[in-house]
Design goal:
Helices cover 25% and strands 23% of the residues. With 198 residues, the chain is of the alpha/beta class. Its EC number is 6.3.3.2. Belongs to the 5-formyltetrahydrofolate cyclo-ligase family.
């Protein structure tokens, strides 16, 4: 996949390359990769023991997390989904019990409607796991997303375990460019492997 050195080292160039690579997968290929990512996630000790999962609903060609969310409910975990907080460019997670009733937020992402869901007691966050989307990750746990900064702003103060989810073609063999505000994940889970980044 794309190098992160030389002419294509800018985040915007890498973003475009990985967006087109993800779009080139067939629905069948996507489903096969996503099932394996789910299996590998269940092997992560922090995930197995967490009572609260901060998840996300997939956007565009992101990894399909709906089966992860449903399995977490089956395992007795609480699941919280993000809502964009525009003025702060951050996320607010609320506990939900179903995937119906989500609305399209200002960023185009499906999220719980304003007033829907239960606010999380901050004391629960250190034992939680946050699933982090991205277009591309490196082995250090850094990522390039869509560029809005919502996740980095939230993760800067998040005390739980940060888990990146990616298909193997979204893992760069070279370090990605990093800005001061970028926050790395602790664990990276792909269809091919699990990396402990921190």
């Amino acid at each position: 996949m794309a190098s992160s050195y030389g002419e294509d080292a800018s985040k915007s160039a890498l973003r475009e390359r990985y967006l087109s690579a993800g779009a080139s997968l067939s629905p069948r290929q996507r489903a096969r990769f996503d099932v394996q990512v789910c299996r590998n996630l269940r092997a992560v000790p922090a995930y197995r023991s967490c009572p609260l999962l901060l998840a996300y609903v997939p956007f565009r060609d992101e990894l399909d997390t709906t089966s992860i969310i449903r399995r977490a409910w089956d395992e007795g975990k609480d699941v919280a989904l993000p809502r964009c907080v525009g003025g702060e460019r951050s996320l607010e997670f609320v506990v939900v019990h179903a995937l119906d009733g989500l609305v399209r937020g200002a960023s185009g992402v499906l999220e719980p409607a304003e007033g829907a869901g239960e606010h999380i007691d901050p004391a629960r966050l250190p034992k939680s796991v946050c699933l982090v989307p991205g277009l591309v990750f490196d082995s250090r746990g850094y990522r390039i997303g869509y560029g809005a900064g919502y996740y980095d702003n939230f993760l800067a103060t998040y005390p739980g375990t940060k888990v990146g989810l990616a298909r193997s073609l979204q893992v760069s063999g070279n370090p990605l460019p990093v800005d001061d505000h970028d926050v790395a994940v602790d664990v990276l889970v792909s269809d091919g492997a699990v990396w402990m980044c921190r």
